[in-house]
Design goal:
The chain is an all-alpha fold. It has one domain. It is built from nine helices and no strands. The protein is elongated, with a radius of gyration of 21 Å. The chain starts with 7 loop residues before the first helix and ends in a 7-residue tail after the last helix.
Length: about 220
């Protein structure tokens, strides 16, 4: 056998492990979710606010809406459905890109999502923005990110030599073990790192909007 080559079975086994791992996840039809619906709603609002803030900042950097206050911009978003449809597309496509090429930091520390600049009077922690998603749609987005974080963490542990099945992994997470802390912090870190500006600037956005029928909000 040529030097540097591995036996065929050594190449196949890792692939089989990945396939079996994926089948195990799908077959279980289970994942860990957040227990508090209010917490999910907060994360939906956070993403909804952030995608509109990125657009607002881009417009001001280009010389548009320089004299427009944030509350007035939100009012415009509420009145103009095509803008809301575009924002929904930007969120979904940004998440797709993250799922495809983004990475979770399982060593991340606690993340502060809401910055002082997001709070107008220094006390009100309600992020003011135009609603984009229905309750079910918003919950689906957040749970999708969390599920993706769990799958990535599960594969990360298996690559480190941790030999357990998906069900056993979930049982460990349900105990709110340090593993859950790693997943939860990585999930919040991913939310904080989402950048919607590239998709707002994408030449594909107009085509993607045309393919989307945004529901009236």
């Amino acid at each position: 056998m040529p030097e540097g080559q591995k036996p065929a079975e050594e190449k196949v086994v890792p692939v089989l492990k990945d396939i079996l791992s994926a089948l195990d996840i799908v077959a279980s039809n289970r994942y860990m979710t957040l227990e508090n619906q209010n917490e999910i709603d907060i994360y939906v609002t956070y993403i909804t606010y952030r995608v509109q803030q990125d657009l607002f900042q881009m417009c001001q950097e280009c010389g548009l809406f320089r004299d427009l206050e944030w509350d007035d911009f939100v009012l415009l978003m509420r009145q103009y459905k095509p803008a809301r449809t575009a924002a929904m597309v930007v969120v979904r496509e940004t998440l797709k890109e993250f799922f495809h090429s983004g990475q979770y930091d399982f060593d991340a520390a606690e993340v502060k999502l809401i910055q002082d600049s997001d709070i107008a009077d220094g006390k009100d922690i309600i992020l003011h923005c135009s609603n984009l998603f229905s309750k079910d749609e918003g919950s689906g987005l957040i749970e999708g990110i969390l599920f993706h974080a769990e799958v990535s963490h599960y594969k990360h542990l298996r690559n480190q030599g941790k030999d357990f099945r998906w069900q056993e992994y979930l049982d460990e997470l349900e105990q709110k073990s340090p593993m859950w802390t790693q997943v939860y912090r990585a999930f919040r870190d991913a939310l904080a790192q989402l950048d919607f500006k590239p998709m707002w600037n994408s030449e594909k956005l107009e085509e993607l909007i045309e393919q989307t029928e945004g529901p009236e909000v």
